Amino acid sequence: MKILFDGDVDVHYGFIYLLPVEEDMPDLSDSRRGQANGLCGAAVPGSLSVVTGTHTGPVPVRAELHDSEPPVGEQWEDVVEVSLDVRPEEYWLSAFAWAEPVDGLTAGTHRARWCATGMDEAHDRTRLDGEPEIDRYLLQLWPALPAPDAVVRRGSENAGYWHGVAAATDPPPPPATPRRDR
Fold this sequence. Notes:
By secondary structure, this protein is mainly β. 10% of the residues lie in helices and 41% in strands.
């Protein structure tokens, strides 16, 4: 296992992205369009959009790269999984006005697991520097074939709300078919 990031992410509006350095942040609605889970959006190719309970302030996040699927820890109240096609580019974790490079993420198809605890307690709250953590998160990635997104565990009302938001969106349109001239 390789630790890609372990520290506080300075969130605003309760979201974090994992995306290529040169990419703009995708729209949150587009990122979870047509998914069963609303906590970790992967509908925009090459990027992830994840939701936190804390609205504003530092949130503890750990990101790990594994060789194979790791076990799901019992300490996590909410756990979701998506497929992510990592591009051969530099990636970063990014929030509204914060970004940190993620070194060591390998190109190819991965499974991404977003684990959360404390989302209900942190819902729409602001955490100031030095205050105790309210919610915390773990992002685990490992090489895997593409598969539908999944809600592995749901323990918070906040996660249930976001799953409902995702389920109410239409799937993204299919890719354009190249036109053949006859």
